[in-house]
Amino acid sequence: MAQRCLKFLKYTMCVANLLCFLCGVAVLGFGVYMLMMEDGPAALLPSLASLNIANMLVISGIVITCVSFLGFLGALKENRCLLLMYFLLLFLLMLVELTAACLLLWYEDKLSKVITDDLNKGLEEAKGSSGNLTLSEWALVQNYFQCCGVTNVTDWGDKVPVSCCLRECSIPQPPYKQKGCLETMQTFFEDNFLTTGISVIVLCLIEVLGMCFAMTLFCHISRSGLGYKL
Length: 230
Hints:
CATH class of the largest domain: Mainly Alpha
Structural class: mainly alpha
Number of domains: 2
CATH topology of the largest domain: Cd81 Antigen, Extracellular Domain, Chain: A
Number of helices: 7
Distance between the termini: 13 Å
CATH architecture of the largest domain: Orthogonal Bundle
CATH superfamily of the largest domain: Tetraspanin
Radius of gyration: 24 Å
Number of strands: 0
């Protein structure tokens, strides 16, 4: 009975990590594609340009593929070293996630001020750029969140982009979106705070299960010497 349970555990780890590996490859490929399609640095948050979506997808894809590959190979080959590395990496990832969540909650006010200052800086750079504003990150954000500027439309001065208009901008006094992007973005993140928290908890539970499976196989292989035959 114990052998059957361990055999089921082994192949469950293999299948789960194989699926995670494929997902990681897809995320990595999509991140590389977004990097290749980018025209330049982020116009929305200049000081955080290195933390844009494309870079985050590439980093996440690399981490997922490496960790899942260790778990798959360690379970398939019954290798104690790989299983231990898999356990330690999952443990470190969980600590990083929990630490980042705690820091975000602790420094929420300071982070809000930094983002506000950076949004103002990014808007000033967008106003001074000669590129097409409808293709900028500001246009995408203003269209998605139905907002204009950081606080309101007056932030753009005389260079109000088309994405701020509620309807046609060709009329003499076009109607503009009243809410600023900072307010709408804060409301959006507050509304999705519960969903984000649940997602982090579920991710931590999956990592804990992975660590338990890896340690169970590790302990059994250690007790059986050269491993067990299936």
